[in-house]
Amino acid sequence: MSIHIPLPIPTHPDEASSPPALSEKEQALYNVVLEHFSAADYTIPDINQEKAALVVDEKFWLSYECLLRYLRATKWDSNQAIKRLEDTLKWRRDFGIYDTITPQHVEPEATTGKEFLFGYDTRGRPALYMCPSKQNTEESPRQIHYTVWMLERGIDLMGPGVETLALMIDYADKAKNPSIGTARTVLNILQTHYPERLGLALIAHLPWLLHAFYKLITPFIDPLTRLKMVFNPVITKNGLFRTAVDAEAWSANSESRVFEPDQLVQEGWNGSQPFVYSHAVYWEALVKLCEERRSRMVAAWHCIGGKVGTKEWEVKIAVRDEAMNVQVDAENVLAKNGQLQS
């Protein structure tokens, strides 16, 4: 029987870990950035000052982990981190993250399932699948909007302690690459405005002819991102691995497995999940799942204090625990009514 909706977010209450403590120097640099954006009179520079105050969505985005991602990306240069954060704040407004790029706007790009979110790797990272052979539109800004919208939804679906996603690109069925211009634009957005959001990029069924394309764009990919790219990963009955050596050496106690079979789709990736993209079912389910989760996260953020520098960890733990409590309550009600079988 086919599956047409995303898998639920893993809970793993015992496996999630809170952010590690900072060194004294790191904490001091973090405090510089935090104090800058927390100032009562702070406004985003170089824009209309009547609209330059931070809105709720922007304060929510400026989390503890977000500030640290930009500090790490700038090698702990607090001034550079502040500049890059402000550049991204302006970009998110100009690009339309909060208003223009809506589900209704990007839906025409989604009808064939050329991109979809499904399952999680062994580190809990959401898997964003890309299927270039299912391209259904001509190159346009909306194509890039759609990719960014899907990236944002992947971020919505990250559980506690998870800050990155797994990108899954399948070049089967005579898939074609986007133009160099489009590829460079997307790369620039990812590297400039989503630092440290890519955990792994798995590129399957890459024919030798398309290796030339990757050689052309490699100069535009930063060295750290290149290290996260795995071409033609090995897939066995035990799951997905980076290399044949990892697959052969795998055991139940090994950490070399990237995906368990029940978190992988069958088509193209030989997983055990019979996922089939049905737009009418999947799209509604994904939009609802992400909107409800984000609403719960924002509500939890407000309860915690609703300030710049709030930890994503605390927000997601609150949402997870609330969901688990609701599930327990529901099971107790069923048990009392004699509807829950052991």
Q: For the report, how would you describe the main beta sheet?
A: 5 strands, mixed
Instruction: Kindly report the spatial arrangement of strands forming the biggest sheet.
Output: 1-2-3-4-5
Number of strands: 8
Name the structural class.
alpha/beta
Distance between the termini: 25 Å
Low-confidence stretches: none
β-strand percent reads: 5-15%
* Pattern of helices and strands: HHHHHEEHEHEHHEEEHEHH
- Calculate Rg over CA atoms: 21 Å
Share of helical residues: 40-55%
Number of helices: 12
Average pLDDT figure: 91
Shape: globular
Description:
There is one protein chain. The two termini are 25 Å apart. This protein is globular. α6 links the parallel β2 (126-130) and β3. The protein has helices at 24-38, 56-61, 64-73, 78-95, 103-110, 141-156, 180-193, 208-217, 223-227, 244-249, 279-304, 312-336; strands at 115-120, 126-130, 165-170, 198-204, 229-231, 234-236, 239-241, 257-259. Strands 1-2-3-4-5 form a five-stranded mixed β-sheet. A three-stranded antiparallel β-sheet has the order 6-7-8. With 342 residues, it is of the alpha/beta class. The protein is built from twelve helices and eight strands. The protein is 46% helix and 11% strand. α1 packs across α3, α1 (24-38) crosses α4 (78-95) and α11 crosses α12.
